[in-house]
Design a protein that fits this description.
By secondary structure, the protein is an alpha/beta fold. It is built from ten helices and eight strands. It is globular, with a radius of gyration of 17 Å.
């Protein structure tokens, strides 16, 4: 594996001299933190460009909410939401990722200019995904996943969450490589909040080194998630809503992830995290 400051590099993507910042554009009416705000194409493209202006290195466009309990959108609607936004951002020179569990959406998004496929199911939701991505040559994010949003909370059962997530990710990496995607094009993601309780998410953030031991760059997507709400609420309090009230906590995780060698962090609010990863890089450079 080629390395850049120990974070790893991904064939087919730019190299950054620090932890990269992936900004989120949810083209959905029901995302857990900003659903409906960027739901039409022109507004979504403008939001993506604003994220780049605030410091995002790449922009992740998704048309299906994966919040706990969410129902699936149909393929035609997901295509209608996603492809024009990907095309609009790519036309402006933005490095675009597509957040989808469907092979056909991935194919059409890459054709429209996306350069990374971010599948929260790691290729498990759609058996056509791995061969489709292999055929495009695009890099691929393999996230730890145990099932769809409707029932994923019931799957949050672990004896040793770090060891089990590492083992399950290793198995998925092997399957994806066997399916034809080059190992140099893989990114791994521990899947914070997906079939995990707060204590599981915190343990995974605390043990990013074990995830990096899988030999591929690590993407950390903690932004505004439930475990941050639990931390901020304390033992008796009510968690703040999954919106801007969790952004300072998100930036704190971004700084920790950058310090621990994450390749990228995926966030809704970019400016504070862009500052956080730059500070982490400056401290690293002062050693």
């Amino acid at each position: 594996m080629s390395t850049l400051h120990g974070r790893g590099s991904v064939e087919g993507l730019p190299e950054w001299d620090r932890c990269a910042v992936m900004g989120v554009v949810n083209v959905t009416p029901d995302s857990f933190s900003d659903g409906g705000r960027w739901f039409d194409t022109s507004t979504a493209v403008k939001h993506g460009l604003d994220l780049v202006a605030e410091g995002a290195d790449l922009v992740d466009v998704g048309g299906e909410s994966t919040r706990p309990g969410a129902s699936r959108v149909d393929e035609a609607e997901e295509l209608r939401r996603v492809v024009p936004v990907v095309r609009g951002l790519a036309a402006e020179g933005v490095t675009v990722s597509v957040d989808t569990m469907r092979a056909r959406v991935a194919e059409q998004a890459v054709a429209a200019g996306a350069v990374l496929v971010n599948d929260v199911s790691g290729g498990l939701a759609d058996p056509a995904m791995i061969p489709a991505v292999a055929a495009t040559g695009a890099p691929f994010v393999v996230m730890h996943w145990r099932g769809f949003s409707q029932d994923m909370n019931s799957r949050a059962v672990y004896t040793d969450v770090v060891a089990e997530v590492v083992a399950e990710l290793r198995a998925r990496i092997e399957a994806v490589i066997e399916g034809g995607i080059a190992p140099e094009r893989l990114v791994i993601d521990p899947g914070l909040g997906f079939a995990k309780q707060a204590e599981h998410d915190l343990a995974l953030v605390a043990h990013l080194a074990e995830l990096r031991g899988l030999g591929r760059p690590v993407l950390v997507a903690a932004s505004r998630k439930r475990f941050l709400g639990h931390v901020l609420a304390g033992p008796e309090g009510a968690p703040p809503p999954p919106a801007r009230e969790r952004d300072a906590a998100t930036a704190a995780v971004s700084a920790i992830a950058a310090h621990e060698g994450a390749w990228a962090v995926r966030v809704h609010e970019v400016r504070a995290t862009a500052d956080a990863v730059r500070v982490a890089r400056a401290v690293e450079g002062a050693r």
